[in-house]
Amino acid sequence: METLIIDGKKIAEEIKLEVANETKSFHNACLVTPGLAVVLVGDDPASSVYVRNKQKSAIASGMKSQTINLPSTVREQDLLNIIENLNLSNEIHGILVQLPLPSHISEEKIVQKIDPIKDVDGLHPFNSGLLSAGTPRFIPATPAGIRELLLRNDLDPDGKHVAILGRSNIVGRPLANLLSMKSIGGNATVSLCHSRTNNLKNITTTADIIIAAIGIPNFLTEDMVKENVVIIDVGINRIESTSHKRGYRLVGDVEFEKVKLKSKAITPVPGGVGPMTIAMLLSNTLLAAKLQCA
Ligand code: NAD
After folding, report:
1. Can you count the helices (H) and strands (E) in the chain?
2. Which residues line ligand 1 (CB under 6 A)?
3. Which of 10, 94, 200, 214 has the maximal Cβ count within 10 Å?
4. Whose CA is nearest to atom 8 of ligand 1?
């Protein structure tokens, strides 16, 4: 049986087109253009690339996009004031603060300052609470993108054992809630694994679907998976490479070439989960505009 290489880029383009069409209809009906503000603190090259891509995609979908670049020395109070102004703006419906933030700024305080109705990253405790109650409003973009990747490739997690590696607030934890929900794209039995999990291999070798979000290159090896497994690789790791012009190449958390041979379906890095994250962020921004203009 040939392994399905899940094309996240193609599915993300489909979703972006759907969002662009809906944005147009929404604009025609309500005369409102959804507006997304992205706040970037510091000049981390990877974060800058993500923010540029988010801005470009928002504009291509017919939305307004504002990027606020701040130096890494910005005071926490100044950042809180900027968020307060965005909370009050009629032009901005979605606010995203690119994480991580410098260590002198409390991520918790910043996330909690964002008005929950504009929290398109879904990280505010109000929104994460709704998700854990099984009635989500804004689902964090990466977990939402993973659910779409599964559903749009006929890989419904319903009834399956899903092992999630990594318990971060942006990927692992909300994903565990999402995939175990009693709804379409849910109904999975989830093992949420992390750095303190004993006998990880015992769990991964019984999983029908493995989602790796750890940040360790090639962590998941072929001996850790069963035949016919579905693999979603969230990891984005830079590996030094002299044969690449930019001096590095991107790899995931999965030893792709070997694990692929045992898999029913697998996402590549790049071109798997990454593009879906942006598509779902746009979908959340449109939802935010609709909720605020209802
Ligand atoms: P993180 O870096 O905050 O945390 C890593 C998680 O991995 C922790 O929960 C930790 O318990 C777990 N972990 C570490 N070692 C482990 C081990 N040996 N066994 C099991 N679990 C272990 O996580 P994050 O922010 O979710 O990022 C994870 C990776 O996903 C990174 O490479 C990041 O760049 C990537 N990422 C990609 C996207 C995307 O859009 N594709 C989005 C977010 C994050």
Report:
1. 10, 11
2. 142, 165-168, 170-172, 193-195, 197, 200, 213-215, 234-237, 273-274, 277
3. 94
4. 166
Q: Considering the domain 33-117, what is its CATH architecture?
A: 3-Layer(aba) Sandwich (3.40)
Q: Are 111 and 50 in contact (CB under 8 A)?
A: no
**Where are the chain's structural domains?**
33-117, 141-273
Do 33-117 and 141-273 have matching folds? yes
Atom from ligand 1 closest to the CA of residue 194: 21
pLDDT tens, residue by residue, 233-267: 999 999 999 999 989 999 999 999 999 999 999 99
**What distance in angstroms lies between residue 34's CA and the mean position of ligand 1's atoms?**
31
Tell me, yes or no, if 9 is annotated catalytic.
no
Measured from the Cα of 219, ligand 1's closest atom is 18
Give the CATH fold of the 141-273 domain: Rossmann fold (3.40.50)
Q: Bridge partners of 231?
A: 210, 266
Task: Report which DSSP code applies to 20.
Answer: H
Burial 92-106, CB ≥16 within 10 A → b, else e: bbbbbbbeebbeebe
66 is catalytic: no
Whether 262 is catalytic is no
Residue type, 266: I
